Every structure is written in structure tokens, then in C-alpha cells.
Amino acid sequence: MGATDGAEGGTAGTRAADASPGLDASDGSIDGAASGGGASIATKCDPSSAFGPVTRLDSLNDQMYSTGTVFVDGDVAYFGAQRSENSDWEMFSAAGDPKADSFQTAHLLANVNTPDDEGGPILSSDGLTLFFNSSPKGQKSSSVYYAKRRSRADDFTEPQPLASVGSLGSVGVDSISPEGTTIYLESSRSPGNQDLYQAKSGASGVFGAPTPIDELNTDHDEFGIVISSDGLTVYFATTRENYGGGNIWVAHRAHVDAPFADLRPVTELNSIYVDAPTWLSPDGCTLYVIRGHNNAYWMNVARRTPPTAP
Predict the structure, then answer these.
(1) CA 136 to CA 33: how far, in whole Å?
(2) In this structure, are residues 123 and 178 in contact, taking their beta carbons and an 8 Å threshold?
(3) Apex CA 201: angle with CA 232 and CA 125, to 5°?
(4) pLDDT higher than threshold 80 for residue 4
(5) 139 band by pLDDT with thresholds 50, 70 and 90
(6) What is the pLDDT of residues 17-67, one digit of tens each?
(7) Is it the case that residue 7 has pLDDT exceeding 60?
(8) Residue 56: beta bridge partners?
(9) Which pTM does this prediction carry?
(10) What is each CA distance from 94 to 79, 81, 290, in whole angstroms?
């Protein structure tokens, strides 16, 4: 998800697209990304229960001036950050123990950072395709790129633009379904505000034109959409109540082709600052949250309490 990274216009990474080819078998297919889509995943908590306290992820925050969106793949965190107040936004990785909120020294991702601002890293479920946003220096617009690698032990190859995703205002990918057939985006293509979109791929693996998720969008800003592993729950940020410039809301749907409903704020996650979701664990028990103000942001984590033994 792309909230707050500098490569995403300073507040959110918006996403849009046309019908041009996207990821296919030759230029970016998410081969091997299937993880069963709506397959059941053993949970370690009640996914309908409230989250516990939002706590700072200082093993990463303390290494940077400002940290953006984070995505966890196994025991590695991928994130965008500024090393100093006036430095570029760049993408890093850090290995560690996510369960203990402990990460080691962060390293620049090879081959994918440029003199422009990069941020908002999102990985396919097999860890082999990286989506991210790139923004020219001094501009608030951003475009979506992708890069591939042969294995998690390898570096990503030189990135390519995601041709099926246009650049109108600020654009980028926030989340991807586990089977890799739907990307969830935020975009300022609508005049005056940011909205949430989704784009689906056909049998060829090419993503079609994004369509707005009308039931989630308002005349205010919506950004930072994160989808659950079963595709039935989304967390997103919105300014509709204008608390701190954006707070986290949740919505549910009965099946993956149904509209989202039951929208409500997740009050235990929200503060007087900008709050936006960035990564939800497959079991729905852990949510990473970006919080900040005055163009300075930091990573946080909130967890649902494991069920007590009978």
C-alpha cells in the first residue's frame, strides 16, 4: 500500500490504469504466485476482535529519518524511507523476527532505486514480483513499476513500467490478491481527491483497466487499501471524518464478487495524526500501520490477542 511514501506525492500513492498490457507470461506475469486465493488459513486470533495497542516499530524507525509503507515477506520487511530530512525516498529491506518486532540493519534494494523517489513496495505472494511507485524529483505524480527475481535469494532485475496502469496525478499499487489476479490501487485520477480502484487480470495475466470501488469512495480522500488473504475484508485510510488527515476504516463483503459493506472506523487504530494501513498478515492477526504528521512518518504494528485456551 502506498500511503505517505515520498514517491507517492507525500500523502498517498494513487493508482490508475488503462487497458494496455500489464503483467503477462513474458513481461511480468506473477507465475507461481497462486496461494489458493480464498483458501482457509489457520488463524491464531479471532479476526473479528479488536486490535491491541498500536506500538512503534523502532527497530526500523530508529534507522531512518522518515519511514513509509512496509510489506513483510517471511522474515524480511520491505519498505520505503528517507535516511535524512532532505534525502531521496528509497526502498530498503531488513531481515529479522517480525513476531518479536525486531529487524536487523536495513539495506538498499539493489537495481530498483534511482535518482527519483521510490516507495510503496508490494510483493506477490511467491515473493518474486515487486511492485512499487516512482516519482520524478519535485513532482507530486508517480507511476507504477514492477521488477522480478528468480528466487527470494536473488536481487530483483531492472524494473519496468506497469504498462496497464496509467499515470494520472499520483498512482501506485497498494495491495494484491494472494492468487495474483487482482491489484488494489489508489489514484488521484478523479478531480480533486484520491479514490480506491481495482484491476483484474484475465487468463493471459494482463491487468485490465482499473475500476473504482464505488462503495468505498467518497468526496474525501481514500488511500492505502489492504486486502485480507480471503479477499473478504479491506482496511483503508480515509479523510471522511477528517481526524488528523486520515484514519483507518474497515469494510467486509460476503464473497469476492460482492460489493463491500459494513463500513466503519477502526477506532483502536486511529489517532490525531495521519493513520494508514500498510500490511495485514495472512492470518489477519497483525496489521502494520503508518502514522505521522508534517511529512514525517513512522512504522507501527498492532496485533489481535491470541485466543485463550479453554
Answers:
(1) 30
(2) no
(3) 60
(4) no
(5) confident
(6) 232 333 433 333 333 333 333 334 455 899 889 999 999 999 999 999 999
(7) no
(8) 300
(9) 0.85
(10) 9, 12, 17
Kindly tell me if the per-residue pLDDT of 191 is higher than 70.
Answer: no
Q: Where are the domains of the chain?
A: 6-303
Note the pLDDT tens digit of each residue in 110-136. 999 999 999 999 999 999 999 999 988
3-state secondary structure the chain: CCECCHHHCCCECCCCCCCCCCCCCCCCCCCCCCCCCCCCCCCCCCCCCCECCCEECHHHHCCCCEEEEEEEECCEEEEEEECCCCCCEEEEEEEEEHHHCEECCCEECCCCCCCCEEEEEEECCCCCEEEEEEECCCCCCEEEEEEECCCCCCCCCCCEECCCCCCCCEEEEEEECCCCCEEEEEECCCCCCCEEEEEEECCCCCECCCEECCCCCCCCCEEEEEECCCCCEEEEEECCCCCCCCEEEEEECCCCCCCCEEEEECHHHCCCCEEEEEEECCCCCEEEEEEEECCEEEEEEEEECCCCCC
Rounded to the nearest angstrom, the gap between the alpha carbon of residue 187 and the centroid of all alpha carbons in its chain is 13
Q: What is the pLDDT of residue 6?
A: 52
State phi, psi for 115 to the nearest 5 degrees: -65, -15
| 226: nearest Cα among 269, 268, 186, 167 | 186
| CATH architecture for the domain at 6-303 | 6 Propeller (2.120)
- Whole-number CA gyration radius for the chain: 17
Q: Phi first, then psi: give them for residue 82, nearest 5 degrees.
A: -110, 130
Q: How many residues does the chain have?
A: 310
Question: What percentage of residues in the chain have a pLDDT greater than 90?
Answer: 61
**How far is residue 205 from each of residues 12, 22, 125, 184, 238, measured CA to CA in Å?**
27, 8, 15, 15, 31
